Amino acid sequence: MGTAELTLHLTDKTHQQQARSPTLILCAKDDSIIPHFHSETLFNHLVRDAKRITVGGAGITEQDYPGWGRISRLSRAAKNGGDVVWWEGLAGGHNNLGWAEGTIDLIQDIAAL
């Protein structure tokens, strides 16, 4: 997938509005390939869309973990796609997030395993 295709998928509002599954966004603040603001923008778009389609709004919780990062969770009803979880890791670069301590727990949680 080329950069233009990736940009289209992440920024196209039609695709974001059609996202109807639990979503896990992982990013590291020290990622030298994908800037941190891409993940932030994607999460914010999903939050905005959830608030638009959810009666009573959508709940967001945030939890800081010193030395590890921050988890932001958008709680959506299952009929609206389930939760969106965004982990902003303090470190991990581009390639070391998938096996970082705690990441497997987040995957397990969002996939309801």
Describe what this molecule looks like in 3D:
This protein is an alpha+beta fold and 113 residues long. It has one domain (21-110). Helix content is 36%, strand content 23%. The protein has four helices and four strands. It has helices at residues 3-11, 13-18, 36-53, 103-110; strands at residues 23-28, 59-65, 69-75, 84-89. A four-stranded mixed β-sheet has the order 1-4-3-2, sandwiched between helices. β2 and β3 (69-75) form a beta hairpin. The chain is globular, with a radius of gyration of 14 Å.
Question: Which features does this protein show?
Answer:
alpha+beta, globular, about 35% helix, about 110 residues, disordered N terminus, four-stranded mixed beta sheet
Q: Class by helix and strand content? A: alpha+beta
Helicity, as a percent range? 25-40%
**Overall mean pLDDT:** 76
- The largest sheet has its strands arranged as 1-4-3-2
**How many domain modules?**
1
User: What value does the Rg take, in angstroms?
Assistant: 14 Å
The proportion of residues in beta strands is 15-25%
The biggest sheet amounts to: 4 strands, mixed
Number of beta-strand segments: 4
- How many helices in DSSP terms? 4
Shape: globular
Order of helices and strands: HHEHEEEH
Low-pLDDT windows of residues: 1-8
Distance between the termini: 29 Å
